[in-house]
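Subject: mismatched residue count in predicted assembly?

I count 532 residues in my input, but I want to confirm that the predicted structure covers every chain. Input:
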Amino acid sequence: MNKKTIALRCVKAAFIGLVLLLLYAPILLLAVYSFINTDVIGTGGGFTFDHYKDLFGDEQVMTMIGNTVGLAFASAALSTVLGTLGAIGMYYSKKRVKTAMGAVSRIPIINAEIVTALSLAILFVTFGMPKSYFTLLMGHMVICTPFVILSVMPKLKQMDNSLYEAALDLGASPAQALFKVILPQIVPGIISGFMLAITLSLDDYIVTVYTRPTGFDTISTYVFNATIRGNAHTAETLSSFWALTTIIFLIILIVAVSANLAGRKKEANK
Amino acid sequence: MRLRFSRKMLGIPYAVFLVFFVLLPMLVILFYAFTDKEMHLSFGNFIQFFSDPTKLSTIVYSLVIALITTAVCLAIAYPVAYILARSKMKKKFILLLLFVTPMWINFVLRINAIRELLSWVGLLGEANYFNTIFGMVYDFLPFMILPLYTTLLKIDESLYEASADLGAGGMTTFTRVTVPLSMPGIMSGITMVFLPSMTNYVVSDMLGNSKVTIIGKFIYEYFGTNWHMGSMVALILLIVVFLSTWLTGGFKEDETVRGANL
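Triage response: the counts match. Full output below for your records.
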């Protein structure tokens, strides 16, 4: 290896490292300060768990975290069922139906979130539906389900079609063939669609604001209001968000690492 | 006669869902955009909006912010995606994962983290436009990296070798082979970043000290006062999205969005 390639390698590594540093700097800053006894980043203080105590001691904060997680699981579960059935139905429909449904299904993906949110809010008011948990759930399903379709569709395309026919020939009913032959083959797509739906729902701010019932807060709406209209909230609340960010980051790291390990085990088994 | 089960039928609930919660809302927007407060057919919303100089200057500002954000994202993401895609590392998948992981932290908490960082270095409230663009680049960068990485990975290594064998230098190979072949990724990355940077007002509100207004914020402001105007702005955004998606062929392809198939 000559000097030039080594230098080029160093430049590449340095660039990647620098961008990663930039991406992680804000999160690591909060992670460090979540253990320091101060409410202002940059000022000193000793080691403490106070921010974590504040976080778990705040009833309002605990409620909104529960709301966020509950909504994410409910909308992800419903989206996954609707989307998986939808993908199977689309896959076996006539080409025209398939294309039309595919195109409409892409609208929430490509659309600006604010447009989706406004259109839903006006729809609900126009048809006399007061904002409730139902409208919120529908809003989240509109942004999640198309991604379930996107995850399941490729698995259907990879599937061997003759297996379904074989199952029917061997005396299985269409429903049995569906559950015992088609579903097992698309499970990876269903799981990744479900995970994606969860992250989308957890992440959402805009659609939530336009479809939620009054008094219902998620992490996104609560943190946004606390930072922008900070007067109603104390410095303790704001610094307890450092602890919340750190906990969420750790959970994501654990999930990412264990998913990766599970994937490697599967590879090894092959 | 008993209705026979067919696999097609499984799609019916989703078809109904799409009609009621995707198509119908779009029609409602269309209806409100072209009517006035007495529900008469009217183009007044458009005329009123486009003859307001303060609105027009906000649109220009918003477009400039979106353009700069997109350009900076592309300038950072292209080298990252290129280096990762051509790397011979066995575990490069983990590196890619490292770039995507921050995206899975709640979006508002992420922006709040940037806010704390900016406040620590003393920029919060001092450089509102810079802060907004910084936050948007931070937030939307993975949307640019993923499609670029996917297309760059598909380029056959032998094409680079062929280009070198035929006497092209590194730069020529890059501009004549790499860039043209990665065009689909570039286009899809640009649409995935440009649109939210025009419309996602959470970033500009939280980092721009509420002094930076972008197009998406109009919709928020009109929602409380005038649905007709709000729908009109939404309709314009909708048309922009449709044109750009149609031009880049996005209605057909199943590309990797938001790490869907990671």
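Chain A has eleven helices and no strands. Marking this ticket as 'not a bug'.
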